[in-house]
């Protein structure tokens, strides 16, 4: 892993970003003190959930979108 100074990165940031994109990693130093590590992001390959995964697991009642009873509406409104 190469060490680079903040000044080096400020002079030509694209150079270092291209190297990181190519797979290289860097340790950023300032006054001989390690500040940060610049390295490629490892992609996470999460598999998408299939459409209809829970099909048939539950039934939506016919009155799902019916208005709520008055006492519940009052409770939400603080009455």
CATH architecture field of the domain at 2-38: 3-Layer(aba) Sandwich
CATH class of the domain at 2-38: Alpha Beta
**Strand composition percent:** 15-25%
Distance between the termini: 65 Å
**Structural class by secondary-structure content:** alpha+beta
What topology, given as strand order, has the largest sheet?
A: 1-2-3
The parts where pLDDT drops under 50 for at least 5 residues are none
What does the largest sheet look like? 3 strands, mixed
Question: Do you know the CATH topology of the domain at 2-38?
Answer: YefM-like fold
Which outline best applies? Answer: elongated
Count of helical segments? 3
Rg over CA atoms: 28 Å
N-to-C SSE string, H for helix and E for strand: EHHEEH
Say how many strands there are: 3
What value does the average pLDDT take?
90
Keywords:
19% strand, 3 strands, alpha+beta, YefM-like fold, 79 residues, single chain
Task: Give an account of the 3D structure.
With 79 residues, this protein is an alpha+beta fold. The protein has a domain at 2-38: YefM-like fold (3-Layer(aba) Sandwich). The chain is built from three helices and three strands. It has helices at 6-11, 13-21, 70-76, and strands spanning 2-5, 26-30, 33-38. The model has no long low-confidence stretch (mean pLDDT 90).
């Amino acid at each position: 892993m190469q060490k680079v100074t903040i000044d080096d990165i400020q002079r030509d940031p694209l150079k270092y970003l291209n190297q990181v994109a190519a797979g290289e990693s860097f340790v950023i130093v300032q006054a001989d003190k390690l500040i940060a590590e610049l390295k490629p992001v490892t992609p996470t390959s999460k598999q998408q959930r299939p459409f209809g995964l829970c099909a048939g697991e539950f039934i939506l009642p016919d009155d799902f979108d019916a208005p709520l009873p008055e006492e519940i509406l009052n409770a939400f409104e603080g009455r």
